[in-house]
Amino acid sequence: CFVCGQAGAAITCWERECKRRFHQPCAAKGECVTQYFRLYRSFCWEHRPEQAVEVAPEDSTTCLLCLDLVGDRVSYGTLVCPACQHAYFHRSCIQKQATHAGACFCCSHCLDKDLFVMEMLSMGIRVSRRRPSWESDQAYGVLYERQCHCNASQCRCPGGREQAEEEGPWQLLLCSSCASEGTHRCCSCLRNSAATWECDGC
C-alpha cells in the first residue's frame, strides 16, 4: 500500500500506467477516490477526478452542513455543488449527509438532484438508494403508537386501564384535540351516546 506501506493492498489505481495500490481503509488518508457506481473505479491522489469549478470559495466560505470554514479552494476535502456553484461542503460532511438522506440526497442550497448526485458519485461519495434515515420506523415509531389506556384519575373499569371495548361504558375515547390522553366513558361520567371528549389539558 503506497499509503501505509503494509502488504495486502488489493485496490489498484484505474490509470493504466499507474502502479499505485492501496487498502480501502487507507484511501481517505491517501486522498484516493473510489467511485461506487458502474465500474467501481478507484484512483490514487495523482489521478483522481477533480471538480471543474469556475469560482473559488472566498476565505469566509463555510460548509453548509457543519458551518466550519472550507478554505479558499476546492480540494480533496472540499466539494462544491456543480449546479449552483455556491454550496460548499467538507467531504466528510457530505458523505454523512448522503448516508442519511439516501434516495432524497440533493444539494442543500439549490436542491438540484440529478447533476449534484452524479458529481458526488464521481468524486467518490457513496450514495445509497434506501429511504432517508429520518423516515425509518425506529425514528417515527413513537409517533405511530396510538394511545390505548384510560388516563382518568380513578379508573373504574373492572378490566383495568388497558381494557377497551368496541362500544358501551368501557369504550375508550381519545381526546378530540390532542389524542394523547384517553378515558373510558364511565370513568369520566359520559353517556353511552357521547362520541367526543376533551382532556383537562385541552
Word description of this protein:
Residues 1-48 form the PHD-type domain. InterPro entries: EPHD, PHD-type_Zinc_Finger, PHD_PHF7/G2E3-like, Znf_FYVE_PHD, Znf_RING, Znf_RING/FYVE/PHD. Keywords: Metal-binding, Zinc, Zinc-finger. One of its GO terms (molecular function) is zinc ion binding. It comes from Bucorvus abyssinicus (Northern ground-hornbill). The chain is largely without helices or strands and 202 residues long. The chain has 3 domains: 1-48, no CATH class; 51-145, no CATH class; 146-201, Zinc/RING finger domain, C3HC4 (zinc finger) (Herpes Virus-1, 2-Layer Sandwich). It contains 3 helices and 8 strands, in the order E-E-E-E-E-E-H-H-H-E-E. The chain has helices spanning 91-101, 114-122, 137-144, and strands at residues 11-12, 21-22, 33-34, 42-43, 78-80, 88-90, 172-174, 182-184. The strands form 4 sheets. Strands 1-2 form a two-stranded antiparallel ribbon. It has a two-stranded antiparallel sheet with strand order 3-4. Strand 7 and strand 8 (182-184) form a beta hairpin. It starts with 10 loop residues before the first strand and ends in an 18-residue tail after the last strand.
